[in-house]
Amino acid sequence: MSKKQKTKDFIIANSLLAFLENGYSKLTMDEVSIILGLSKKTLYNHFRSKEELLFSCVYKLRNDLKSEIEEVINNKKLPYHEKLQKNLKIASNHISKITPKFGSDLQTNMPHIWSILVNYKKNEAVLHFSELLNEGIEQGFINKNINTSIVILMYLSAIENLLNPSYLNELPYAVRSQISFSANDIFNDIIKVIYEGILVNDAKINYKEELD
Fold it and tell me: What number of other Cβ atoms are within 10 A of residue 42's Cβ?
């Protein structure tokens, strides 16, 4: 890898962290350069604008999700219940990366970029979840009588709602007041309910052992 590419990768990775922590709109390119410990000239040599930098950060999130999921899906040596668990962890970890500050900011001020990020995460997650369902049915780990379309719809709904920064705030107060955990925790519990509902008994035992 060339020095120029290493510098560009450094800028993207650390700018993403800065945007996640501070939001996008409030940070100027001057402030980004200070946070990164680079000169403005170096920053502008790689990115002509803050929006171009944001695009690269969003594509990093996309590519990270894609590579992590595909690594699990394509691992032929991994037992099925471990694939389920690892897939769950990857999905929940990527949801938790999208901080409310960053998500709300993009949703309000950069909706076109927010749509790119959310749609990709949904499409990628659903595509591979569908592959896992079919693999589980073929191997006898998942009840073949389940309606896979409904299961996928439930999974998609969980992702779509929990990627929405205002989701929890829109819940009725009576429900919201009883929730003391994060969107990440809620997602994990929803997926556990889905998995335990579709797995055959032997697979449930392995899956629960993996969770413990």
Answer: 13
Q: What 3-state DSSP class applies to 147?
A: coil
Rg from Cα positions in the chain: 20
- Residues 113/117/123/126 CA torsion (nearest 10 deg): -150
The SS3 of residue 142 is strand
Q: What are phi and psi of 164, to 5 degrees?
A: -85, 115
Minimal CA–CA distance to 167: which of 154, 176, 156?
A: 176
Measured between alpha carbons, how far is 54 from 88 in angstroms, rounded to an integer?
Answer: 27
Alpha-helix residue ranges (DSSP H) falling in 50-141: 50-73, 80-97, 100-109, 111-139
Taking 3-state DSSP, the helix, strand and coil percentages for the chain, each rounded to the nearest 5, stand at 80, 0, 20
Query: pTM to 2 decimals?
Result: 0.74
In this predicted model, what pLDDT tens digit does every residue of 157-198 receive, in sequence order? 776 666 665 666 677 777 667 665 666 676 667 777 777 777
Contact 207, 199 (CB under 8 A): yes
Determine the 3-state secondary structure of 143 from DSSP.
coil
Domains detected in the chain: 63-211 (1.10.357)
More reliable by pLDDT, 168 or 156: 156
Helices and strands in the chain, H and E counts = 12, 0
